[in-house]
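A reminder from the course coordinator: this example appears on the midterm review sheet, so study it carefully.

Given structure:
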């Protein structure tokens, strides 16, 4: 009996761990250098050229040319699944290049991405009349985070519910007093 419990616990643990995986493929994760932190990489990019890291953020610009696509991305911190979580002002922006055509209709401004990328160097560009040094990455694998539908302030999931209106979300706290409502008198 103890052995069955141990096996069941182990299987349950493996299922839980399997659900906490990265959004990137195992092949992409195999080449990642986890010893390199993005902030150290940004401070001295010349010493980290050729190292592959996981980075992510919000697409600010998608430029197409003869050599492929260049994405300008505002770096975000990543969660446990390597999905962008929140903007990281200290890290700034970076460029990501690929020889593949990334359709600007899909990889558009405002979309969140996670990528396994190899540092190629630094590229200087003008950013609001100032010279800005962008770390330049070559994309190994790119994950486009699905758009999530955010409901506005007028959204009412119980609008067409079969029960009376005072049971709907904003009025749920009145439920114990339903018998005092004029409808029941």
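Designed residues:
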């Amino acid at each position: 009996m103890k052995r069955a419990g141990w096996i069941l616990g182990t299987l349950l643990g493996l299922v839980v761990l399997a659900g906490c995986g990265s959004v990137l493929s195992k092949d992409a994760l195999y080449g990642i250098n986890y010893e390199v932190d993005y902030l150290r990489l940004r401070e001295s990019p010349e010493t980290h050229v050729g190292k592959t890291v996981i980075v992510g953020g919000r697409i600010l610009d998608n430029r197409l040319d003869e050599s492929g696509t260049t994405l300008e991305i505002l770096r975000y911190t990543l969660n446990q699944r390597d999905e962008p979580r929140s903007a990281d002002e200290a890290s700034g922006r970076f460029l990501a290049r690929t020889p593949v055509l990334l359709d600007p209709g899909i990889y558009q401004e405002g979309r969140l991405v996670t990528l396994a990328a190899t540092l190629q160097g630094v590229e200087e560009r003008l950013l609001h009349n100032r010279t800005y040094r962008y770390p330049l990455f070559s994309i190994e694998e790119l994950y486009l985070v699905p758009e999530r539908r955010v409901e506005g302030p007028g959204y009412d999931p119980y609008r067409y519910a079969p029960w009376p209106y005072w049971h709907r979300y904003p009025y749920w706290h009145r439920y114990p007093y339903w018998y005092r409502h004029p409808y029941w008198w």
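The beta strands are 52-65, 68-78, 84-87, 93-98, 112-127, 130-144. The first strand starts at residue 52 and ends at 65.
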